[in-house]
Amino acid sequence: MDWGTLHTFIGGVNKHSTSIGKVWITVIFIFRVMILVVAAQEVWGDEQEDFVCNTLQPGCKNVCYDHFFPVSHIRLWALQLIFVSTPALLVAMHVAYYRHEAARKFRRGEKRNEFKDLEDIKKQKVRIEGSLWWTYTSSIFFRIIFEASFMYVFYFLYNGYHLPWVLKCGIDPCPNLVDCFISRPTEKTVFTIFMISASVICMLLNVAELCYLLLKVCFRRSKRMQTQRNHPNHALKESKQNEMNELISDSGQNAITGFPS
Amino acid sequence: MSWMFLRDLTGVNKYSTGIGQIWLAVVFIFRLLVYMVAAEHVWKDEQKEFECNVKQPGCENVCFDHFFPISQIRLWALQLIMVSTPSLLVFLHVAYREGREQRHRKKLYVSPGMTDGGLWYTYLISLVVKTGFEIGFLALFYKLYDGFSVPYLMKCDLKPCPNTVDCFISKPTEKTIFILFLVITSCLCIVLNFIELSFLVLKCLIKCCLQKYSQRLKSSAQECHNLRYVECGEIGAPPLLQNRHSDLAISSPQRGETKLLFDTQEG
């Protein structure tokens, strides 16, 4: 089980996403997951080994490291990516349920005119409307919440997004206030800012997708109301025309019967 | 051999209920994936970074072994394996059904993967065993490590340590966070298993009750039909019944009515 399998899970939802959703999936997997696996993990690989405190007191380094890094950046990013990707599973489950119901109705013989066979049901792209629209919108909403929460947790835990090169630590068993040095602080800061920027972009994409979906629904509703408004006039015109046709045909018949045989 | 083998081996996705599929998603994404991409690395250098405030050789080794008889991460991995394997029972049962159909060369079951008859019991047993394993491992975790939190300092006075020494564990907060994550997902899986169990049992009970009720209706309808023939006499009854029961029908209609009542009450 690794990021590739998650990609397979989420990639399946790609078919039913909007274009913005597809861009979001690409950004997530290329600019965040790949960077995490290929680069960031190497940078943070030796973080505790190379965390050095200016003291020989055993245990001081452990305690100071634990105090300044309650959860490592790398782990937080991995959790963030997992949590942010999973709402898409809701959509995948809804689509699977919809297909299951369609297949059941097809087997009973109800939707034969809509689908050719069971394979057709599986291949058909499901449109984002009705209950699927609500599932999709809630998944985007949860994504935004998770992104924002993790960004806040990051900011709260590390007092910003910048890593200092020295930290002062005076926790027991350290004998006094000792200097502790973080390994590769600049490189870590660069990657932190990169990941936060990618997070912000993903959040903006999600907000844009949400607005797009809401606008689409409003537009559809206003179109429906417009056709309903025009439709009664149209119906009235049609019925008047029918009446006239009947009158003509009646008068015509009378005229015919009036002819001498 | 890797974790993907477990997923391919259990392959029970097709034979699960809806809740079973949610359980699979929780196990593979929130437990297995988190284990592989995050948790494993937290415990990577646990012994190297385990430090005791003493220079006595061997003291650190002995203390580490005393406090961590089995590493939390290994226990986590074992739990994941044990919890995934009862689903194999279902898989094997379906394979056995398919094998049987092939041997007899005719359709023996409505569908080999449908949970009815023996497969229902197998599915139920696999759920019970899964839940048992989950609870068992959580209890073991709690007993071995005196709770679900990892302290930053432990006092150790085992030989060859000269006196009570302070031993410091690496990354205790991060480990505590991941263990809590493990406990929460475990509890979620237990709840899902219980829901699925109750759902299966309720469904079966409802089906049984409905069957009994429809059988009762059928039998009472049949009785009513027979009695109606008896009372109609010459009009609608077959010749045999006509000769035997027409007298009865004419002479004692009330008894027929009471008989009908009695039957329905009995049925």
TrEMBL record, chain A:
MF annotations from Gene Ontology: actin filament binding; beta-tubulin binding; gap junction channel activity involved in cell communication by electrical coupling; microtubule binding
Keywords assigned: Cell junction, Cell membrane, Gap junction, Membrane, Transmembrane, Transmembrane helix
InterPro entries: Connexin, Connexin_CCC, Connexin_CS, Connexin_N, Connexin_N_sf
Residue ranges annotated for the Connexin cysteine-rich domain, each copy included: 146-213
Source organism (scientific name): Ailuropoda melanoleuca
Keyword Manganese: no
Function of the molecule: One gap junction consists of a cluster of closely packed pairs of transmembrane channels, the connexons, through which materials of low MW diffuse from one cell to a neighboring cell.
Gene Ontology cellular component annotations, sorted alphabetically: actin filament; connexin complex
Location within or outside the cell: Cell junction, Gap junction; Cell membrane
Membrane topology type: Multi-pass membrane protein
Listed GO biological process terms: cell-cell signaling; ear morphogenesis; gap junction assembly; gap junction-mediated intercellular transport; sensory perception of sound
Similarity field: Belongs to the connexin family.
Chain ranges passing through the membrane: 23-41, 77-98, 132-158, 191-215
Subunit structure: A connexon is composed of a hexamer of connexins.
Lineage of the organism: Eukaryota, Metazoa, Chordata, Craniata, Vertebrata
Name under which the protein is recorded: Gap junction protein
Domain Connexin N-terminal: 42-75
UniProtKB/TrEMBL annotation, chain B:
Annotated localization: Cell junction, Gap junction; Cell membrane
Pfam families according to UniProt: Connexin (PF00029)
Swiss-Prot/TrEMBL GO biological process terms: cell-cell signaling
SMART domains (alphabetical): CNX (SM00037), Connexin_CCC (SM01089)
Principal cellular location given in the protein's record: other
Domain Connexin N-terminal residues, every copy: 41-74
Recorded GO MF terms: gap junction channel activity
GO CC field: connexin complex
Keywords: Cell junction, Cell membrane, Gap junction, Membrane, Transmembrane, Transmembrane helix
Residues spanning the membrane: 21-38, 76-96, 117-142, 177-202
Gene3D superfamilies noted in UniProt: Gap junction channel protein cysteine-rich domain
Domain Connexin cysteine-rich, residue spans: 133-200
The family this protein is said to belong to: Belongs to the connexin family.
Known role: One gap junction consists of a cluster of closely packed pairs of transmembrane channels, the connexons, through which materials of low MW diffuse from one cell to a neighboring cell.
PANTHER family per the UniProt record, alphabetical: CONNEXIN, GAP JUNCTION BETA-7 PROTEIN
Assembly information from the UniProt record: A connexon is composed of a hexamer of connexins.
This protein's name: Gap junction protein
Species this chain originates from: Ailuropoda melanoleuca
